[in-house]
Design goal:
The protein is of the alpha+beta class and about 425 residues long. The protein has one domain (about 5-135, about 195-415): Cytochrome P450 (Cytochrome p450, Orthogonal Bundle). Helix content is about 55%, strand content about 10%. It contains 16 helices and twelve strands. A hairpin with a 2-residue loop joins strand 1 (about 15-20) and strand 2 (about 25-30). The protein starts with a helix and ends in a 6-residue tail after the last strand. The relative contact order is 0.16.
């Protein structure tokens, strides 16, 4: 993807605010914290989220992030509550089970794996856990099979020609609705009152006392899976690369995690929420990984009226792109920005300079869950396993999120069977 290089070049010539065209649409690029805050927080009502229609149809038009106003506010509060620390702390045993199962399978295979691809499976399973709790295996397999087809066709050329990736994805999306309808019907028939996200979606009512339709519930479930999977998988993949490339830092993280491991009777007891809050070095590694990788490099908005900002006119209908990656890599805010240095987060960044999950009312509500699953996986990885990156390729590939080349090919071993 040439966009980051293009943006850096144009910024050098024209500064932090400039106009260009993206896919034929006039667009204002914003690479300052103040401008990003203006668009996403203080004047968010003057801009709306904008996505290609093909994306809306694939995920579902009722998904939270396609909306603003009362519907968005009501759904966002519900999703935030379902993914808040007091809720996700109860998921720790389940996430540990998923993490250990994944690590065991990678080590047992003895094969070189595509780390990003396997992390997608891991984050999908955690997403299923957070949405449905412990879902029947048959339903989970059907959801995963069809979700993979949708995921594969999501960024393909939008055509309804039979056999094309896009057409297959649309058909799989219809099947996902049918599967979700079966799960919902079963819950209603059994009168199950669960405190997972699906339970909250089934029970929430608007000011008229009306509940969500099945289409609204399905669209939001698929939307949350999409929002959580690739971004979290890319984030954790980068963390493994950064740790692998810095043996001294890796040893320090191992020492921190080994202390947790020993206090849990040699890993025989589950991690606790309190312990995850004490992983200070590992947590700073996550924050620096989020800054360096900048998985969400930018976001799109569209001006709903003519907007003036610092003497610039943004006409109604123009696209606006706050550029998170460029802010995160600006030496004015982060010294030596291309060096991986977790110690920089010993001091909080300046306001609005660190936005790995976006900002404002459309910021990612699942950011705490993403960090929790990363902490848990890293804990078990460094205390029970070792890994080695295979090949010498460096650099970034986009699909559409930034990941290490070839998904970071790696081989994993249990520590007791590590090669000398």
């Amino acid at each position: 993807m040439v966009l980051p290089l293009f943006v850096s070049f144009v910024m050098f010539r024209y500064g932090e605010i400039f106009k260009t065209q993206i896919l034929g649409c006039p667009c204002v690029m914003l690479a300052s914290p103040e401008a990003a805050r203006f668009v996403l927080v203080t004047h968010a009502h003057l801009f709306k989220p904008t996505y290609p229609k093909s994306k809306e149809m694939m995920i579902g038009p009722w998904a939270l992030f396609f909306h603003q106003g009362e519907y968005h506010t009501r759904l966002r509060k519900l999703v935030q509550y379902s993914l808040a620390p007091d809720t996700i702390r109860k998921l720790i045993p389940g996430i540990e089970h998923i993490a250990l199962s994944a690590l065991d399978s990678w080590a047992a295979s003895g094969q070189v794996i595509n780390t990003f691809y396997e992390m997608k499976k891991f984050s999908f399973d955690v997403g299923i856990l957070s949405i449905f709790g412990h879902l029947d295996g048959g339903y989970k397999e059907k959801l995963e099979e069809n979700y993979r087809i949708v995921d594969k066709g999501y960024n393909s050329f939008p055509t309804k020609i039979p056999g094309s990736a896009h057409h297959k994805a649309l058909q799989a999306r219809k099947r996902l609705n049918q599967i979700l309808s079966e799960i919902i019907r079963e819950r209603k028939e059994k009168r199950l009152v669960e405190k997972d996200l699906l339970g909250h979606l089934l029970n929430v009512k608007d000011e008229k006392g009306e509940t969500l339709t099945e289409d609204q519930i399905a669209d939001n479930i698929i939307g949350i899976l999409f929002a959580a999977q690739d971004t979290t998988a890319s984030f954790i993949t980068w963390i493994l690369k950064f740790l692998h490339d810095d043996p001294k830092l890796l040893e320090a993280v191992k020492a921190e995690q080994k202390a947790m491991y020993e206090s849990n009777n040699g890993g025989k007891e589950h991690l606790t929420w309190a312990q995850t809050r004490k992983m200070t070095l590992t947590y700073r590694v996550l924050l620096e990984g989020l800054r360096m990788a900048s998985i969400i490099s930018f976001t799109f908005r569209e001006a709903v009226v003519d907007v003036e900002y610092k003497g610039y006119l943004i006409p109604k209908g123009w696209k606006v792109m706050p550029l998170f990656r460029n802010i995160h890599h600006n030496p004015e805010f982060f010294s030596d920005p291309h060096d991986f240095d977790p110690s920089r987060f010993e001091v909080a960044p300046k306001p609005n300079t660190f936005m790995p999950f976006g900002n404002g009312v459309h910021a990612c509500p699942g950011n705490e869950l993403a960090k929790l699953e990363a902490l848990i996986l890293i804990h078990h990885l460094v205390t029970k396993f070792r890994w080695e990156v295979v090949g010498s390729e460096s650099g970034i590939q986009y699909g559409p999120f930034p990941v290490p080349q070839q998904g970071l090919p790696a081989r994993f071993w249990k520590q007791s069977s590590c090669p000398s």
